[in-house]
Design goal:
The chain has 293 residues and is of the alpha/beta class. It contains 15 helices and eight strands. The chain is elongated and about 65 Å long.
């Protein structure tokens, strides 16, 4: 019925659906053949993970053709309802991680060794029960993230995870630990957000684990640049990045406090993409120069 309604729509027929957006947000979502044929013929796909295998498996053509707009994960309300870019940035702890240590990818168990080699690390494995998240755990974790300076965000079942966006929302400097060649195209709103200005990137823990003293070298670099004993120049840079991260999250990624900002950012990226593909005419070069956070 959906496929038939779309085919009959004058708006869809105008450009074969190329200026439509399909929100594909559920990993296990199955697309029936008529709808799949329609989606693969034209519309953009908006999702949170370009590289998550089940999404690209269900709709392979849009992914191969680059018809994908990346969206941020929906962060826990415990972090999203308290996004204040003007609040003081005084960490009472330093490195922080809570989450599942055993995932399909990412070698997260290497965090245990990393935690031994940096100062002030609080890394603990915690798996949420299948029946749903525990409210007290979410509340406590959000409080601890706000009180921390640096939050490793390792690869899990997908290159990105919700932890990245919760780190941004709490002002904890995100260390993205995923293959950089993948992450270049797997972060939301690249025309609007300068990701290098609000987060740091390292090799994945899986890669570092295969290199001689790979984790030890990362620990040494972290201590020198973002650790508690880093020199004043690095500390000022870290503080500035954390503040910019809060501002960027509130402007573009806060579903609870600024949903209009999320939608506007999605539509802007879609506009850029459609111009790049020649579907729409517009000031494409000027749009690429839009203000970034």
């Amino acid at each position: 019925k959906v496929a038939e309604a779309l085919k009959a729509s004058e708006h869809f027929k105008r450009r074969g659906g190329q200026d439509h957006i399909h929100l594909f947000m559920k990993y296990g979502q199955n697309v029936n053949p008529p709808l799949k044929e329609l989606y693969e013929a034209g519309p953009l796909v908006a999702t949170t993970d370009r590289s998550f295998w089940s999404i690209s498996h269900n709709l392979p053509t849009p992914f191969k053709k680059g018809q994908v707009v990346l969206l941020p994960y929906v962060s826990s309300s415990y972090v999203d309802v308290d996004v204040d870019p003007s609040r003081r940035m005084d960490p009472t702890s330093w490195y922080f991680f809570r989450g599942t240590l055993f995932r399909r990818f990412g070698a997260r168990t290497e965090l245990v060794e990393l935690g031994r080699q940096v100062t002030g690390a609080s890394f603990e494995g915690h798996k949420m029960p299948s029946k749903g998240p525990q409210e007290d755990v979410l509340q406590n974790t959000s409080r601890l993230m706000r009180a921390s300076s640096v939050c490793p965000c390792p690869q899990g079942d997908a290159p990105t995870s919700g932890r990245l966006f919760e780190a941004l929302a709490t002002g904890c400097l995100a260390i993205v630990m995923s293959p950089r060649d993948i992450m270049t195209n797997d972060l939301p709103f690249p025309s609007l957000i300068d990701w290098d200005a609000i987060s740091l990137f390292s090799h994945s823990l899986e890669f570092l684990g295969t290199r001689t003293r790979g984790v030890a070298r990362l620990a040494k670099q972290l201590e020198r640049t973002v650790g508690p004993q880093a020199d004043v120049h690095y500390k000022r840079r870290t503080g500035a990045m954390r503040k910019r991260a809060l501002e960027a999250f509130h402007r573009h990624m806060s579903y609870f406090r600024n949903p209009e900002g999320v939608v506007s950012s999605m539509l802007f990226e879609a506009w850029i993409l459609l111009q790049a593909k020649g579907v729409l005419e517009g000031p494409y070069v000027e749009a690429l120069g839009a203000e970034k956070f």
